[in-house]
Each structure stands twice: as C-alpha cells, then as structure tokens.
Amino acid sequence: RYMGWPSGVKYDLVDPHDSPLNETVETQVQGRSSSCYHVNIECEDDNCGARPMYRNLPSSTPAPLSGPGSWPWHANFFNEGEYVCGGSIVHKVFVLTDLSCAKMVVQAGSFITVLVGQEKRTNVGLGPYSQLRIVVSLKVVQGSTVVLAQMDRMLEFNDHVNQLCLSEEAWTPSDSCVMSGMAGDMLTKTMETVVEQCSSTELCLTATPSGVDTLNWAGALACADTKGRYRAVGVYHSTAQSPPDRVTSLLGGGVGGNIARVITAGLASDPRVPDDPCEGVRCGLGNCVKEENVCDRNWDCQEGEDEINCPVVSSTSLALCEQVGSGPECSCLPGQLKCGNNLCLDLGAWCDGVPDCGDGSDEPAECGACVTRLALLTPTAICDSVPDCQDWSDETSQACGCQPDSFRCDQPFNISSSPSCIP
Hints:
7% of the residues lie in helices and 28% in strands. By secondary structure, it is mainly beta.
C-alpha cells in the first residue's frame, strides 16, 4: 500500500527527466536535496501480469515462483466438487483454458466451479484469500483451441488474485516462460520452460526436468516482458505426467482479437446462473450434499456449509439434578439416581448393560453382583430379613454390617429390623 492507496497498486520512482509531468511539476525545492523523483502509480485495472504480493521488491531480487501470491492468475476447475483441470485468469469474470480441458470439465458433471487464490489442497476449509465462483458458460474462441469460462460474478483482485495480460500478436516472448497446475497437495505448482516459435500456430517447449506430475495441467503459458509483467503467449493442456513439448500459440491468427470479442460479448449481458438440480445443500466447491446428510454434525462440504444454521439438538434428554439449598449438593426426583455428571437417570435404566449417563456411571462394577447391585439401587432391601438374592447374600452377617468372624443371631423371615451380631 502506498500513501493510503488500496492493495493492487504498483508504484515506481521515476527520474524527473523520464516523467511525463516533467514540464508541469517543480522538481527543485529550496532547502531540500536536488535529487528528486516523481512517483508513478499504476492502479489495479492496469496491473495485469503483475504479482502484487512482490510488486515492490528491489529489482535485484527476483520474485519466487512458489508460495502465496506467487502465481495469482492460476485457477482450478471443479465439477461437483472434484478437481478436473486448470486455467488462467485473463479478466475479472473470465478464465482461459484449453478446449480439451473444457471438454473434461463438461463431461465430469453438471455444476462447474472455479477456485482461485488457494495455494494448497486441504481436507477441511479453504484459505482466507481463496475465492469461489460458478461457471455460467464456456465459449470456444474462433479459430483456436482457446476456451473462455465466464463466471457468475467478478473476482476481487488483491495480493493473491490477479489477471494475466493478453499478449499483442506482434510481441516476441522471452526464452523463459512458466506453466502451472495442480500437483499432489499443491493446487498451484509452477514449472519453468524454454519457449521457441515452432510455427505460426505452435510454440515448442523445453521444460526443466523436475519430476513434477503435470497431468491435467491447463491454462495459459505465461512469459514475462521486459518490465517483468507476465503475458499469455500460448494455451496448453497436459494429458500426461510430463509437460507437453508443443502448445497452441496465441501470438498469431487473430486469436487475441477473437478473445477480446468473446469477452466483450460476454460482458454485454448479465450472466445467467444455470438451474441447480441439487435437492440438499450445494457446497461452495460444487458438490451436492443429500438432504439426509445435512445437519448430521459431519462436514460434507469443504467449508462446512451443510452444517450452518442447523437446529440446536441437545446431546441428552436427561435432566440435571436440582440444587439443594445454597451448597454444592443436588438431588434427583424419587425413582431416579444421580449420575456421576449430575444428570438424573431412572432406576430401571441402571445396571442394564447400556450406558445412559454418558460417563458410564450407571454401569459401575457393582452391577456385577446381586448384593452390591441391590445396595446401589435399593439399599433398604439389604438386611431386611427378606432374601432378594438367590444366594441370600443380601441377608448375611456381612451384608448386615457384622464384623468378620461374627454371627447374625436372628434368622431370615423373622422380620427383625435390628439383627444381633454375636462374636
């Protein structure tokens, strides 16, 4: 940012003799240094082919070809949420790709999207600089294999997203150019290649060996001009794991003019978003989540759109125990016992082999024996002179609290409430 200008602005210090304002701007100010410069500012719309993230690097420091913002015009086509092939941004609402890539995109499904500004593929969520758009039309440029994909709305150009310049037909590309695509978990991977003019319609490439899988790389071959701006000089689609050795040239045959005409015609009317057959939730990336999988507490969309604005569902129907007085103790209703997490559970649900409390406290080890289970659930049935356990373990001297090596004097069925313990 320069003097408050928003992102996407490029500025350079220009010698006064080279400035168009040399005759109208005073460059010698009394009391100051005689070494003055004019500031040349280029706004966003005229900043095609620039990598805004690195726009103010010293001329001696080259901008990297990998990392955030290093290749801001790279785009990826998805159909029904699945990656298909690549493309290049050439306008705020148009992405350029090769005809064979476009055919694959159409054949892959019915809902096409474009993802830009995203460097890496992730399992959940997209980066803060990513932008998703719906493709509303794919148009073949007359006399070429170039296809322009029109998006439903404009992209926002910033440090991570920008457009590639379209080359003038008389322009001669530099020897070193770059192609890009997806490889592994990288949605934007680049590869340098040497370019030569093979014929009036083709460019020959000699890529630097890198071992990178270039299958379904597609878009515009970009070459830098003398000012460091990148321009689209060819269109390609790699159908193998190694890069192509020939690509279609954009430098002849009136292709550039035909591209401009398609863009102009597309901008003449508002884009119509195609009808969406999805009966559940359409994710931003393009996949359709069935209605039965919406609000099931599992992210099926990359950004979790299928779990937004879902009704709040309590994780349990059990009530909390009610506080007794002002102390920390709380109690449950008659016929209930308190779980270890202060929830209240009916007596009949304890020791039934099903953990209902949520913390397992309704299925303790005491449930394994009759006398201990009885002491937990119905403590008044212990030592009441009525045997509830088949082995009468609830009426033994130990169950009645007699000391070891002692004897319970009264016998069962004599309904004594105070058994005697005799050593």
